């Protein structure tokens, strides 16, 4: 059974994640849930813009090639405390949009050859550091080294979420179901709910980071759009955006679809809102915004635990 193959591949530390995602795409088509393929496609081909899930945000360090008449350092950790907050953020954080295959190959290279990932900066970026480097020292080039631990964590997150979905689905259809039984049981199961919970989470409390002091308790109820609005308004989502969300949810439900962040009008709304937050257009942290919306929508759909 294809589902067993996916679970076996995901359970193995050497299992290829790209292959598992491809098989999951086939599986979703087999059970008639093409509406759930959006996340799988994004992981397989890469995200089209910087609106990525929180687990794909990786940290970076700025390094440079500096030299004077007497000495030269080809890999020097550059100072950044003098930079503006926005500049520091752009140089120390990166939204990883690459496909899972590219990420897997980069991690493989890092493990075997110590070859990491880096983002080269344009030549004019050297001007940002010349004033804080010792007199007589030239900044020849600068780049950002990506934290490979964060990159490896992307693979762990995708593997874990996908495995949760596959295991939950197998619990329902059984490990030895023939193709006909599998399709019948999958049709009766809340596959969309299982997928939403496994991939995007289902708890009703949002905690940001191990050392974060900000905790948001999601208290909205199933099918209650007003309590959903209250939760999101509580973290600073503007009324105009909440009006758009209400319209998106209504339209998705009218079309017989569950309002989720991965697809439909609600998904489009979520992507646009995160994009604005990432550019500072909304005074809400991206991780707080995305996590709260996922939890609140889960509660609205009756999938909160």
Structural class: alpha+beta
Return the average pLDDT rounded to an integer. Answer: 83
Helix content: 40-55%
Order of helices and strands: HHHEEHEHEEHHHEEHHHH
Number of helices: 12
The biggest sheet amounts to: 5 strands, antiparallel
Radius of gyration, taken over Cα atoms and rounded to an integer in Å: 22 Å
% residues in beta strands: 5-15%
Tell me, briefly, the overall form: flat
Q: Low-confidence parts, pLDDT < 50 over ≥5 residues?
A: 202-213
Distance between the termini: 30 Å
Brief sketch in words of this structure:
The chain has helices at residues 2-11, 17-30, 37-45, 85-92, 100-113, 148-173, 179-188, 191-200, 225-234, 239-254, 264-278, 286-300, and strands at 57-67, 72-77, 93-95, 118-120, 138-146, 205-207, 215-217. By secondary structure, the protein is α+β, with helices and mostly antiparallel strands. Among the domains are: 54-148, no CATH class; 202-305, no CATH class.
Structure write-up:
- The structure is a single chain.
- Helix content is 51%, strand content 12%.
- Strands 1, 2, 3, 4 and 5 form a five-stranded antiparallel β-sheet that branches. A two-stranded antiparallel ribbon has the order 6-7.
- α1 runs antiparallel to α6 (148-173), α10 (239-254) packs antiparallel against α11 and α11 packs antiparallel against α12.
- It is flat, with a radius of gyration of 22 Å.
- Mean pLDDT is 83; it is low at 202-213.
- The chain is an alpha+beta fold and 305 residues long.
């Amino acid at each position: 059974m294809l589902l067993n193959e996916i679970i076996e591949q995901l359970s193995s530390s050497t299992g290829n994640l790209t292959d598992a995602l491809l098989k999951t795409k086939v599986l979703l088509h087999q059970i008639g849930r093409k509406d759930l393929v959006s996340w799988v496609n994004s992981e397989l081909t890469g995200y089209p813009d910087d609106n990525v899930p929180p687990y794909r945000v990786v940290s970076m360090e700025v390094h440079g090639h500096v030299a004077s008449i007497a000495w030269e350092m080809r890999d020097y950790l550059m100072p950044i405390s003098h930079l503006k907050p926005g500049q520091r953020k752009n140089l120390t954080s990166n939204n990883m949009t690459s496909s899972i295959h590219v990420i897997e190959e980069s991690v493989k290279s890092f493990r075997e050859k110590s070859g990491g990932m880096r983002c080269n900066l344009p030549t004019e970026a050297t001007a940002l550091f010349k004033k804080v480097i010792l007199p007589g020292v030239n900044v020849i080039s600068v780049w950002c080294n990506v934290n490979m631990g964060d990159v490896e964590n992307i693979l762990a997150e995708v593997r874990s979420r996908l495995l949760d979905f596959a295991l939950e689905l197998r619990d329902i259809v059984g490990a030895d179901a023939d193709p006909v039984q599998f399709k019948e049981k999958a049709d009766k199961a809340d596959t969309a709910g299982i997928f939403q919970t496994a991939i995007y989470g289902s708890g009703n409390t949002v905690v940001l980071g191990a050392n974060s002091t900000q905790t948001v308790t999601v208290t909205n109820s199933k099918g209650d759009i007003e309590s959903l609005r209250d939760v999101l308004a509580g973290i600073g989502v503007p009324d105009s955006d909440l009006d758009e969300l209400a319209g998106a949810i209504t339209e998705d439900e009218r079309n017989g679809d569950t309002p989720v962040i991965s697809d439909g009008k609600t998904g489009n709304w979520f992507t646009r809102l995160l994009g604005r937050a990432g550019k500072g257009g909304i005074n809400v942290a991206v991780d707080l915004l995305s996590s709260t919306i996922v939890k609140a929508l889960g509660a609205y759909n009756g999938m909160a635990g």
